[in-house]
Design a protein that fits this description.
The complex is a heterotrimer of chains A (292), B (256) and C (482). Chain A has 292 residues and is an all-alpha fold. Helix content of chain A is 73%, strand content 0%. The chains are: A mainly alpha (292), B mainly alpha (256), C alpha+beta (482).
């Protein structure tokens, strides 16, 4: 690679790297380490952090209440991700095959609703699902749900709103991949005798796999850490890890406990991320091995 | 080859899904009924009430002030980070990339709680400064990624061309690099601004007792009910952002 | 290629010739003169020089000017070792210049002199180091060792903005945020020349490149050819001593490329400054350049005028990279006379070759014969001591309009032959696939190589022998350096 003399020479590297580097070390890495450290600290009765070290907090995670919440967090997130992928893939496919002029409009149409505030979007669903709201009345009139059923404050509502908030983040990376996909390949597959479904599965999906992988991560990770959605449209039976963290922080003011839960959440996030990275690395290594 | 109708149907369904709540919200902002279950007549009452709610405008002012400072800080840090990541290949940059990338893939709540614990451990008084610092921290990564994307399309031969034509490094930077990257940096700044204005979770964690921002205000309004005001406020915000984005697109097109 | 063998004094007026040296150093003092001051003076010099043995003096005249004069044996003399670089080629000097990227030697101890006003071409495949060499002259790369001199001044450590050298970049590197006019004005503007002066000069440049009507357009609104003109104007407005052109035609389509080639030549004639033209396209290099340096793996393989490079390649690389060639490998079976040897080559009986290298019996020989030098015929041609004649079977025929290309098999050799069509072809009975034919070439048309490497044969355009054979990725040096 050519280096322009005078402008960003190698000797300038530290000066241009350090500002962001130091900032992120101090305000991202150090706080993350503190989270793990405080999980081993006792709490003090005034909502602060006590002296000394203890395993008490970690032990209290064994409380049967927590595995249930962890499990709920995981299945709600996985279900959210799955639904998002199922909806996003055909949408992205359709967008990528639309003529260019319309494509930009379509893209805009996907993004515009998300120019409203995040909280407002959730609130809008609260209105829609409200016991006196339109949807409830319509469903009752159609005898889909009994009049006493609640559309709000349950896991279903949480799932619905999670899908709503995460779906555009699933569509965008898949669309980006689909846009680069060579649709002639589909014709080639059909020409060689594959049916439409088979073509979709064996040619299109592998062709956009990077987009799918990105979409999975960008929906799964925020879903795992979601707090506002279950807080506003969920009830006591649909609490997720995020809710517990906030509760321990603000209501009980038990910071070590909040730390321990955060560490647990961090692990829950790290596992799929690491898996995705490993998957991608393994694939590349295999390809290189095959090429050699 | 006949194309399947499924993608079209799914796309239409998705669009309906996206717009249903927004439409209900906008509609209800003009609905005389307080809970919006049924249409009880057109009214601008909620907008009038909104104008007469000083605490909302105060919160908006705070939000904008925080966003301006956070945007300025994160744009500087994010742009330098992007230049470093684009121009150098070294161990330092590998670590740097990891550092810049990580905040993007960590749930907000973890960023929020870790910053809260950090401030508590340092006995820093929570308030507007801590909110600004937190916002800069998560915005840096977004700015860096946006600028980095533009930098990857940037043709460094142009800098060489400028130097070849007699420009020293400083002149080449000012006359070639800056004007060409300005749209990318502006896009990064705009993203940082929107993220800062919209952020609730992280702000919620690092806000002090008396501090308030618009999202914090909206949250408490949702929790302690004045729904029609939120409808009106969101409609207003939606109109504003749509116009702003539409205008900037027009300007960009004309500039081209 | 023609030449003159003057018999009694030099009275021929021609405007472009050179004198070749004899290989024997002893003879040099008496029989050979080297002319240093261009053709006109050279002709004058020659008249007044006492030459003892005129038969050994050779003037080389490029095709358009001369006629074939003299006997056939004198042909051989021009194949003496191609000349050393011009004595006047010291306007730009690379002195023992090297540049390494890690363990890769992009430029490996290159020494090269380029004359003032010369149209010089660096030719080679991608990754051969030609671009690196150019960038060291422009100031974008610092050599690890060696010096770069411009007009006697050491510019090795001078930053690009302070060199009187301007570049036409590969994709022109025109500033997309500036108009055509602003692009051209860039150099004088950053040099802080007075506004009015700049405006005047830009206006002149716009007129020169016939782009006055497009002056306010943005770069993405003009065509490829126009871009090249803007790039030229943007460089020339700074009145550089040297103009560097880094594959300037690569971005253009074929027809436009040919047009811009002529335009470049005209610009060079007009401004008269030194042009250094980097290309991987032999056609571009041959048609424009006064001299060409063929580069390979960071070194200069051969330096000379295009005609010398083509007719007298020193290595198999040069021979195969510039045009196609047939290579024969064998040993000297017999030294026939002072100038000829008989070669022993598998699959052929008694091939003769001109022995310009002074080889002895038993020495190894690599012979290169250009496809168009070989005549192909159905009927047995007249044989004679002057010609090599052999039988072959046609493998493949490709009709190309102006000529036809044949691939043939003779023993274990695959040969390429080109037949020019300067007669109405339809009257002839065509040579077809599987036909058995006769091949013949003049003994003097084979040229002995100094170096041969088998992999160089991959540079040529032989068709694959089996389906799929041509699919294997060609072994090529890593891209990005070339």
């Amino acid at each position: 690679m050519a280096e322009a003399r005078g402008l960003l020479e190698p000797r300038h590297e530290p000066w241009i790297t350090l500002p962001s580097f130091v900032w992120l070390i101090v305000l991202f890495t150090v706080p993350a380490a503190i989270v793990f450290a405080i999980a081993f600290k006792p709490s003090d009765p005034y909502g602060g952090i006590g002296a000394g070290w203890t395993l008490q907090t970690l032990r209290s995670l064994g409380d049967p209440n927590y595995p249930a919440i962890l499990w709920r967090t995981i299945w709600l997130s996985v279900a959210t991700t799955a639904l998002c992928l199922v909806l996003a893939t055909p949408t992205a496919y359709f967008m990528a095959r639309t003529p260019e002029r319309w494509r930009h409009l379509l893209l805009l149409a996907i993004i515009v609703p998300f120019w409203t505030s995040f909280l407002v979007r959730i609130f809008a669903w609260k209105v829609v699902l409200h016991p006196e709201g339109l949807l409830k009345r319509a469903l009752v009139a159609l005898h889909v749900v009994p009049p006493e059923a609640s559309l709000l404050y349950n896991a279903g509502a949480v799932l619905l709103v999670l899908v709503y908030t995460e779906l555009p983040f699933a569509i965008l990376p898949i669309y980006a991949a689909a846009e680069k996909f060579d649709f002639k390949l589909l014709e080639a597959a059909r020409d060689l005798g594959a049916g439409p479904l088979r073509t979709f599965w064996t040619v299109f999906l592998p062709g956009i796999r990077r987009g799918l992988l990105t979409a999975t991560l960008v929906t799964l990770i925020p879903a795992l850490g979601s707090y506002v959605v279950p807080d506003l449209v969920g009830g006591p039976t649909s609490e997720m890890l995020g809710n517990k963290i906030a509760q321990r922080t603000f209501s009980d003011r038990n910071l070590p406990h909040a730390s321990a839960l955060s560490a647990l959440l961090a692990l829950a996030v790290l596992v799929p991320s690491a898996a995705a990275i490993a998957l991608e690395r393994g694939r590349r290594a295999r390809q290189r091995a095959e090429a050699a | 080859m006949r194309r399947s109708l499924t993608p079209l149907v799914v796309t239409l369904a998705v669009l309906a899904f996206f717009y249903l709540p927004v439409a209900v919200l906008v509609g209800n902002s003009f609905n005389a009924s307080r809970f919006g279950g049924e249409w009880s007549g057109f009214t601008l009452n909620w907008y009038r009430r909104l104008l007469a709610a000083p605490e909302i405008w105060h919160a908006l002012g705070n939000t904008l002030a925080i966003a301006l400072v956070a945007t300025a800080g994160s744009t500087v840090l994010g742009t330098t980070a992007a230049f470093a990541l684009d121009r150098y290949r070294s161990r330092l940059q590998d670590a740097h990339y990891l550092l810049v990338y990580a905040p993007l893939v960590i749930p907000e709540i973890l960023l929020g709680i870790s910053l809260l614990l950090f401030f508590v451990a340092l006995r820093v008084q929570l308030g507007y400064p801590t909110i600004v610092v937190a916002h800069v921290t998560f915005c840096v990564s977004y700015v860096a990624m946006v600028v980095l994307g533009r930098l990857q399309d940037f043709d460094w031969a142009l800098v060489e061309a400028a130097q070849d034509l007699g420009a020293d490094a400083w002149t080449a930077g000012r006359r070639v690099v800056l004007p060409l990257l300005a749209p990318g940096i502006a896009a990064g700044a705009l993203l940082a601004f929107t993220l800062s204005v919209d952020d609730f979770v992280i702000t919620f964690f690092v806000a002090g007792p008396g501090t308030t921002t618009l999202p914090l205000r909206i949250y408490s309004m949702i929790k302690h009910g004045s729904p029609p005001l939120i409808n009106a406020l969101s409609t207003l915000l939606l109109t504003l952002t749509t116009t702003a984005v539409w205008l900037s697109q027009r300007l960009l097109k004309e500039a081209r | 290629m023609t030449f003159l063998a003057p018999k009694d004094g030099l009275s021929i007026a021609c405007d472009n010739f050179v004198i070749l040296e004899d290989s024997k150093p002893a003879a040099l003092t008496h029989e050979f003169i080297r002319f240093r001051h261009g053709p006109a003076v050279a002709a004058e010099d020659a008249k007044h020089t006492k030459i003892r043995d005129r038969s050994r003096l050779r003037l080389l005249v490029p095709r358009p000017y001369g006629h074939y004069i003299g006997q056939s044996h004198s042909v051989r003399r021009l194949r003496r070792r191609p000349r050393a670089p011009h004595a006047v080629s010291d306007f730009i000097q690379f002195e023992d210049v090297s540049r390494h990227y890690g363990s890769v030697r992009a430029v490996d101890k290159v020494s090269l002199g380029i004359g003032k006003g010369e149209f010089f071409s660096l030719l080679g495949p991608s990754g051969c180091g030609k671009t690196t060499l150019l960038r060291m002259l422009a100031g974008f790369e610092r050599p690890d060792t060696g010096r770069v001199l411009l007009d006697g001044q050491d510019i090795t450590d001078l930053p690009p903005e302070r060199r009187k050298v301007n570049t036409i970049f590969q994709n022109y590197a025109l500033f997309p945020h500036l108009s055509v006019r602003q692009n051209i004005a860039f150099g004088p503007t950053v040099a802080r020349r007075p506004r009015r002066e700049v405006d005047d000069e830009v206006e002149k440049m716009l007129a020169l490149i016939q782009m006055r009507d497009h002056a306010e357009k943005r770069i993405d609104q003009i065509s490829g050819g126009q871009k090249q003109r803007v790039a030229i104007a943007r460089a020339l407005i700074n009145k550089p001593a040297v103009l560097l052109l880094d594959e300037p035609l690569a971005a253009l389509d074929l027809k436009l490329r040919q047009r811009m080639l002529i335009e470049l030549d005209m610009v060079h004639d007009q401004v008269g400054i030194t042009f250094i033209f980097v290309t991987h396209d032999q056609g571009e290099a041959m048609s424009l350049a006064d001299r060409v340096a063929v580069m390979n793996e960071g070194r200069i393989e051969q330096l000379g005028r295009p005609v010398e490079i083509y007719e007298a390649p020193q290595t198999s690389f040069v021979s195969a990279f510039i045009g196609d060639s047939n290579f024969f490998e064998g040993v000297v079976a017999e030294v026939v006379d002072a100038e000829h040897v008989r070669l022993s080559i598998d699959s052929f009986q008694d091939l003769y070759a001109f022995n310009d290298k002074g080889l002895h019996q038993g020495e190894r020989v690599y012979l290169s014969v250009r496809p168009e030098k070989i005549r192909i015929s159905r009927d047995r041609p007249l044989e004679g001591r002057d010609h090599n004649t052999t039988r072959a079977v046609v493998d493949d025929v490709i009709y190309l309009g102006t000529h036809t290309r044949f691939w043939l098999r003779a023993g274990e050799y695959r040969l390429a032959v080109e037949q020019q069509h300067n007669r109405f072809v339809l009257d002839d009975l065509p040579i077809r696939w599987q036909d058995e034919v006769w091949l013949q070439w003049h003994v003097d048309d084979g040229y002995m190589l100094e170096r041969y490497a088998e992999r160089d044969e991959a540079l040529m355009s032989f068709p694959p022998q089996r389906v799929g054979e041509g699919d294997a990725p060609a072994e090529s040096p890593a891209d990005g350096r070339g």
